[in-house]
Amino acid sequence: KLRNWWTNDTDKAFDVKKECLVDQYEGLEVKQVGKNVNGRLTLGENIADFGGVRSSHMAFEKYLTENNETQVLPGLPFTPLQLYWIFFGQSWCTVARDEKIRDKLLNDKHSPPQFRINGPLSNYEGFAKDFGCKPGDQMVKETQCRIW
Predict the structure, then answer these.
(1) What is the CATH number of the domain that holds 91?
(2) By the number of CB atoms within 10 A of the CB, which of 24, 71, 83, 86 ranks highest?
(3) How many separate domains does the chain show?
(4) Mean pLDDT for each 10-residue chunk of the chain (148 residues)?
């Protein structure tokens, strides 16, 4: 049995946060095919990506702190938190033909893989902190969207 347990003010505030994401994603072009993401179609999954990135990063930070983990991989100049982001990005590496990309842009509720990385990360202060990004850098959105 579904019922709305949010107040009208909470519901309105959430609508504003959702529109921030819709606007951002509708401005993203898949250059390979010259078409933009449908921010309304992908909204639910984009919200999930934002929440997943934030909560998993916070959990990893907590793990590192509680276990006093500071080891780095030999020969690599990255901290454990930077490696976390690198591995996250690698998990979305794909190659697709133009026809497949066009079909996904029209029908898939998920954003294209590159935007499942760059969308949440460029809006998340944890990523910026871990890599020392500053306002105006490519991976720091001028207008930050935050859902949760």
Answers:
(1) 3.40.390.10
(2) 24
(3) 1
(4) 89 96 97 98 97 96 94 92 96 95 97 96 97 96 92
